[in-house]
Amino acid sequence: MLVFQHPVPEAGVQIPKGTVEPEEAPEEGVIREMKEETGLNHVQLNGILAEDLWKNEDGAVHHRYFYKLTVSDAPDEWVWNPAGGGEEEGLTFRFFWISAAEEGNLIRGHGGYLHLIFSH
Q1: Distance (Å, rounded) from C-alpha 116 to C-alpha 120?
Q2: Distance between CA atoms of 74 and 38, rounded to whole angstroms?
Q3: DSSP per residue, 37-75
Q4: Contact 18, 88 (CB under 8 A)
Q5: Nudix hydrolase domain: from which residue to which, for each copy (predicted)?
Q6: Which domains are assigned to the chain?
Q7: pLDDT tens track of the chain, all 120 residues?
Q8: This prediction's pTM
Q9: Closest by CA position to 111, among listed 61, 50, 26, 25
């Protein structure tokens, strides 16, 4: 599974994520966000794994969608500056792949549905 190391140590290791724009369907948003956040251009949507409402530590509620995606021509590891702007502007993320045995290293809220990724 693809993850990245955030340059702010407290942000930890995360799965790629993003915000669906008001005019987008979630399926369109996930493809756009993957391209902006990872730099990968050959992203294929393989279905939704889960959907939930999640309350962040600051009390904000997020409607989250979890999709299974495949990519082609992705290296084992790379760095990328997210292209979507916002709070990630100017940051550099280090992307790499993890196995099911390594999923415990993710920041809170990012690992709840990983069993669905590794079981399909």
Answers
A1: 6
A2: 10
A3: HH----EEEEEEEEEEEEE-TTS-EEEEEEEEEEESS--
A4: no
A5: 1-120
A6: 2-119 (3.90.79.10)
A7: 899 998 988 888 888 988 899 999 999 999 999 999 999 999 999 999 889 898 888 999 989 898 999 998 899 999 999 987 778 888 999 999 988 777 666 666 666 666 777 665
A8: 0.83
A9: 50
Residue with tokens 């990012």: 110
Amino acid in the structure at residue 39? G
pLDDT computed for residue 104 by the predictor:
64
d(CA 59, CA 46): 32
Strand-pair category, 61-71 with 93-97:
unpaired
Span between the terminal Cα atoms of the chain, in Å: 12
Side chain identity, residue 25: A
